[in-house]
Specification:
Blueprint (H helix, E strand, L loop, with lengths): L1 H49 L5 H61 L2
Helix pairs in contact: 1-2
Length: 118
């Protein structure tokens, strides 16, 4: 039985580590990527002001796109955090259920042995 229990625990640990890695990458690398797109948008605004080749709609599209990416970035962080917490809770609840099931199985085995006269 220990081997059967060990496999889900290892899988859950790998899942949690992968989600934590993705979350740390988002937290530490995401702001750098967002700030570089802000610099690009500001440079584009300067080009629009100095030139008639580009129109204001292009800058507006970049600004809107940047806001959408920032919102998506924040949503991904929240979802990853919720997934990690949910995994911890599921593991905790599963462990408690496993212990109660194991104790009930032992009780039933003892009753069965008593009925058999072992």
């Amino acid at each position: 039985m220990a081997g059967k229990l060990l496999q889900p625990v290892i899988f859950n640990a790998i899942t949690i580590v992968a989600m934590l890695y993705a979350l740390t990458q988002l937290v530490f690398e995401g702001p750098r990527l967002l700030s570089s797109s802000t610099e690009i948008t500001m440079a584009l605004e300067e080009v629009v002001q100095n030139s008639d080749l580009l129109d204001e709609s292009l800058v507006s599209k970049f600004t809107t796109d940047q806001a959408q990416r920032r919102g998506l970035f924040n949503e991904i962080i929240v979802v990853m955090f919720i997934a990690i917490v949910a995994n911890f809770v599921a593991n905790y609840l599963g462990r408690g259920r496993h212990h109660s099931n194991t104790s009930r199985i032992r009780e039933l085995e003892a009753e069965l042995r008593a009925l058999r006269g072992d």
